[in-house]
Amino acid sequence: MNRTALLALCPTALLATAAGPPAFVTSDPNGGWSRAGYYVHNNLWNAAKYSPCTSTLSAWSHDNWQVVTRMNNRTGDGAVKTYPNVHRDYPGVPLDAFESITSRFAETSPQVGIYNVAYDIWINGIARPGCTEIMIWTDNFHQVPGGRYVQDVTFGEHT
């Protein structure tokens, strides 16, 4: 089976620690910035029907960025409205071509509102039927339902 891999770090809110002005700022719902082989993406993919929703992404680098987002949840449905992220694609590279896949992830969240911060790994495509997504919720703040317990998983030395 020829599977391709995409590693996507998809936090919903990060607080940058860099000094000085960001190298890139956008409030465009689909705005993004390419840097060092990565793409930093504002990605308000489901916000239009929940207007007003705003999001401003500021990036100092591909591994140091923040998003300030204001979302409308008047419907109470808790739907995901935006998914700002940084990702690196490996189109056409079979998954078995990788001897190992490692990455690092850190985030800081504001502890207000409703959100989750997740880490995604897409295998064999990106967000379309037949693709496999491994989503790891790393921080959940009042986002319900948050799913149900399925099982513990061990990655390296972490459970």
What keywords describe this structure?
single chain; 159 residues; mainly beta; Jelly Rolls; 6-stranded antiparallel β-sheet; 3-stranded antiparallel β-sheet; globular; disordered N terminus
Q: How does this model look, in words?
A:
The strands form 2 sheets. The protein has a 6-stranded antiparallel beta sheet with strand order 3-4-7-1-8-9, with no helix packed on it. It has a 3-stranded antiparallel beta sheet with strand order 2-5-6, with no helix packed on it. A hairpin with an 8-residue loop joins strand 8 and strand 9. It starts with a strand and ends in an 18-residue tail after the last strand. It has strands at residues 4-10, 24-26, 32-35, 38-41, 54-61, 64-70, 85-94, 115-123, 132-141. It has one domain: Glycoside hydrolase family 11/12, catalytic domain (Jelly Rolls), CATH 2.60.120.180. It has 159 residues and is mostly beta strands.
